[in-house]
Automatic annotation (TrEMBL):
Residues 1-38 are annotated as: Disordered. GO terms for biological process: cell differentiation. It holds the Pfam family IFRD. This is Interferon-related developmental regulator 1.
Amino acid sequence: GGQPRNVQPFSDEDASIETMSHCSGFSDPASFTEDGPEVDEEATQEDLEYKLKGFIDLTLDKSAKTRQAALESLKSAFSSKILYEFIMERRMTLTDSIERCIKKGKSDEQCAAAGLACLLCVQMGSGIESEEIFKTLGPVLKKIVCDGTASIQARQACATCLGICCFIVTDDITELYSTMECLENIFMKAYQRDRDTNGVSSTHNTVLHVSALLAWTLLLTICPMNEVKKKIEMHLHKLPSLLSCDDLNMRIAAGETLALLFELARETDSDFFYEDMDLLTEKLRALATDGNKHRAKVDKRKQRSVFRDVLRAVEERDFPTEMVKFGPERMYIDCWVKKQTYETFKEILGSGMQYHLQSNDFLRNVFELGPPVMLDAATLKTMKISRFERHLYNSAAFKARTKARSKCRDKRADVGEFF
């Protein structure tokens, strides 16, 4: 490769620019400062476009380091802004660059390119243009996923990308089944247990198996019910074996997939009966109360939290509802299907998830949020409380907390003296 160029990464300052596309009017209320100076949106939009064009050009640079930096900068931009119109004009160029980087690049570059492919499809949403992107990238992703000589990290990134892009794009049922089969062939290798007392042994392939299983589970949520029934019959008796894996992420992925399968099974048949229910609930309860000293405290805490919810789902058909806030809106996650979908896109979009929930038509459609809520700058300003009011509220809250804590301390002191 050639000499690496100095690539100025996409920064938070760029991300804060209210620009691009039909959704450019959206913003978080916090982005409007009180009595702040007016921003020339047209000029900042041109600056951002200029930077992004430069990054796209650099994805073809001779230096691998430069290409990777450019891919990462594009990922930051795509996750933090809605850039539909900009991308629409350059989708084929971007697709060609991503394909080239996945085919020719090394592990880190392939991972960055696969991540950018996910975000490209998230930006474009479902439609003919996205289908064209997937037709080009789908075979390349499958090839890397199934290539035993490729790095595990690249295969892992491509498995995740394959699942997400297929979820977004495909209306072709045969393509959906083909993609699921590809992912199935990967994670089913984890079922092949070593015949020793420790159950499933942890190998360097486990991260790949986890990503393939999670991507497959995402696609299962959009399958027709007759196919869902087939997959449940095929996997529900095998998945519990993965609960004995040494790897925490595999145990959690298997547990959450089991909860989702039970949820889908009971949707198709309210009288669904699982033969080995006692054995399964015993395993789940053990994981929900695990106190093994050889495991890290953080891992045990995370495992117990997840498996308490999984046990409730399997045993009591219950789901702990979660609320997600974004801008002036609220979304309730009230089932495992919705949780799996939300967690997948949150992993890809990172801190940009709230912004995309507010502004991205595709994601709003997935979570049944309706069309984006149009809010202008004046409305957002009226929604924001003044600095003085916020100060008064914080002072009152602080005093209330201090009084409550003082009472608790007094009670503890009394008890101490009593004993």
